[in-house]
Amino acid sequence: MSLPPIKRRSLLVAAPRLAGAVLVAALLGGCAVGPDYRAPGFQLPASWGKASPSVTTTGEEAENRPPELADWWKRLGDPTLNRLVDEAVAGNLDVATAKARVRQARATRQQAMGALAPSVTGSGSYSRADNGSNVSSSGDVTVSGPFDTFTLGSNASWELDLFGENRRAAEAATYGLDAAEETLRNTLLTLIGDVATYYVEARGYQARAALARRTAVSQRETAGLTRTKLQAGSASAVDVANAEGQAASTEANIPELESSYQQTVHQLAILLGQPPSALNETMKRSAPIPTPVKAIPRGVPANVLLSRPDVRLAERQYAQYTAKIGQAEAARYPDVSLVGEVTTSAAKVGDLAKSSSVSWSFGPSVSIPIFNAGQLKAAVDFAQAQRDEYFLTYHAAVLSALQDVENASVSLQQERIKYRSLSASAASYRQAVELARALYQSGASSFLDVLVAERSAYSADDTLLASRVAIATDYVALNKALGGGWTGKVDDRTPAVVDTQMAPRLVSFDRAGLKPRDPENQGVAEAFAH
Question: Among the four 255, 412, 491, 520, which has the fewest Cβ within 10 Å?
Answer without folding.
Answer: 491
